[in-house]
Specification:
flat; 3 helices; mainly alpha
């Protein structure tokens, strides 16, 4: 057994809307976090941002206030970090 493998009885926490949106945001941020992101990093980040925007559009009216605010805040932060050409 690998030293890095989790114990067999460990279960991942349940996926919630909050954890799903945050994980997408963190993934996009990771691609934008280097001083000079590669073209591939920018494309992946832009695609993830588009996915979050699609999620926002398709869930409009179905989110509670906190979920809507979280999604909006993550989108605004990521869009502000994405270079104009991406």
């Amino acid at each position: 057994m690998s030293e890095t493998a989790p114990p067999a009885n460990t279960q991942a926490p349940p996926v919630t809307f909050y954890t799903f949106v945050v994980s997408l945001g963190q993934a996009a941020m990771q691609h934008l976090s280097t001083e000079e992101p590669s073209e591939d990093d920018l494309l992946i980040a832009a695609n993830t941002i588009q996915t979050l925007a699609l999620l926002q559009d398709k869930t409009q009216g179905n989110l509670d206030d906190e979920e809507a605010k979280l999604l909006e805040a993550i989108l605004l932060e990521l869009q502000g970090k994405l270079p104009a050409q991406a």
